[in-house]
Specification:
homodimer; DUF1636 (chains A, B); 5 strands; Thioredoxin-like_sf (chains A, B); 3 helices; Glutaredoxin; 119 residues; five-stranded mixed sheet; alpha+beta
Chain lengths: 119, 119
């Protein structure tokens, strides 16, 4: 079963984006897909993660795991985001030991949500 | 099936909390449980939602629905949080029409995450 790396593709990250120009969220998504998703990770474009004041943002989730949202990201963070997503996919409960998380995940958490209650 | 209203009970919301005193997160949780959960909502205490700089925070989630995280809350917001949780529980996909959301949900979103992909 794969985990989802949701990427907000509409994020302007506070920039004024001229017509016909890719916004920061679209550029981040492009950088992630160009680098390629790690095993067991699917990159999912999303229109708005409602973290607009802290964009660009991404969210990691999968059934039975904690979900995580990270912000203040850019296309320059693509490699580190993918490394963190791979670590998340490899941890059965999604909880990666603190020191094994990329620095952007340690310092730029916007929120985490416990696993779904299925009852 | 019920939806979960996760409440961070360890949040200090930037306050210095003297020993033996309930922190703002614990007070928010107490206010919510004292007011009583709406139908089909379970109030779930959580130790840290990793939104510490935007606390107090709560998260709404349920299988098949978008998850939402809200911040900058206090025990004074308990009634409005429960009203918003009830509206979320009543919306089959968790997407409540914008005007029917409490003001704190419209203005204090920290993030939202798409429904889980079960594939």
């Amino acid at each position: 079963m794969s985990v989802s790396l949701h990427v907000c593709i509409t994020c302007k990250a506070g920039e004024t984006v001229p017509d016909g120009t890719a916004c920061p969220g679209t550029r981040l998504h492009a950088a992630l897909t160009a680098a390629g998703a790690p095993e067991a990770v699917q990159i999912v474009p999303v229109e708005c993660l409602s973290a607009c004041s802290q964009g660009c943002s991404v969210a990691l989730s999968a059934p039975g795991r904690w979900s995580y949202v990270y912000g203040r990201l850019s296309e320059n963070d693509a490699a580190e985001i993918l490394s963190g997503a791979a670590a998340y996919a490899s941890a059965p409960d999604g909880i990666v030991p603190w020191r094994q998380r990329p620095q952007i995940f340690r310092k730029q958490s916007l929120a985490r949500i416990p696993p779904m209650v299925l009852a």
